Amino acid sequence: MPSQYSYLGGGLILLVFWAIIFLARKDLRREIIWASLVGLPFGFIERLFVPYYWYPASLFDLMRRYGFGLEGFLYSFCVAGIAAVIYEFLEKRKTVKIKRDKELHLGPFIAFILVYVILEIFSPANPMLDLTVAFVCGAVFTALARPDLLRQILVSGLTFGVFYLIFFALVNAMFGNFVSQFYSPQFFGNFKLIGVPLEEIIGAFAGGAFWSTLYEYTKAYREEALL
């Protein structure tokens, strides 16, 4: 596949995994769609990553013209949805309403946004590190406010991190050294694991932890085993 389509190709692979979970678990469809739609606007954050962290080719040359492309929204949509339900999918868990509460509890979002904005003001040249720290802060907020979700946060972070590592290594192998063509890792230099930059791996752990319980915390749900 030509390099200008490799970013899209990776996003389509993620979409396949997203679709597998969506089709296999009818009970998780509401959560995966909710998380994916909430994650969709994160595609705009890509503007902060170009060209400091990476500079991939994109459809219609949107990355060069605007700093973000359609592929980034596809990635954000899929990553948020998969990370939100990977724990329930693999552990055979389901979400259950714990109280009649129609309010949205936005603490993790607020913690994430505040930390990310502050970090971007003071260290704009390290966008991946800033995003990772903000994800961690959002996850910590959830764990402190809802200790019952701590195991889900930790297991989801680990599970999604491993999933993303394998996925990224696959994309890198399929599309001709995706990393060497488009990435300029900053904080950990050229340290890689099976060809994947360490920043991406740590970011995936943090992102998985953040997204894993966002639905449960925001909408007052808990986890229990499937019957």
Question: What does it look like?
Answer:
- With 227 residues, this protein is mainly alpha-helical.
- It has one domain.
- The chain is 65% helix and 6% strand.
- It has 11 helices and 4 strands; from the N terminus they run αααααβααααββααβ.
- The strands form 2 sheets. Strands 1-4 form a two-stranded antiparallel sheet. A two-stranded antiparallel sheet has the order 2-3.
- The model has no long low-confidence stretch (mean pLDDT 87).
Defining traits:
two-stranded antiparallel ribbon, 227 residues, 65% helix, two-stranded antiparallel sheet, 11 helices, mainly alpha
Q: Roughly what fraction of the amino acids lie in strands?
A: 5-15%
How far from one another are the termini? 44 Å
**Averaged pLDDT, please?**
87
> Number of helical runs?
11
Note the overall shape. Answer: globular
The percent of residues in helical segments reads 55-70%
Number of strands: 4
Number of domains: 1
For the largest beta-sheet, the strand count, sense and barrel status come to:
2 strands, antiparallel
Counting helices, strands and paired strands, the structural category is mainly alpha
Order of helices and strands: HHHHHEHHHHEEHHE
Rg: 17 Å
Catalogue the unreliable spans.
none
Strand order of the largest sheet: 1-4
Task: Describe the structure concisely for a colleague.
With 227 residues, this protein is mainly alpha-helical.
Question: Secondary-structure blueprint of this entry?
Answer:
Blueprint (H helix, E strand, L loop, with lengths): L5 H19 L4 H11 L6 H4 L12 H5 L3 H22 L1 E5 L9 H16 L4 H19 L4 H25 L3 H5 L9 E2 L2 E2 H15 L1 H6 L1 E5 L2
Helix pairs in contact: 1-5, 2-5, 5-8, 5-10, 6-7, 7-10, 8-10
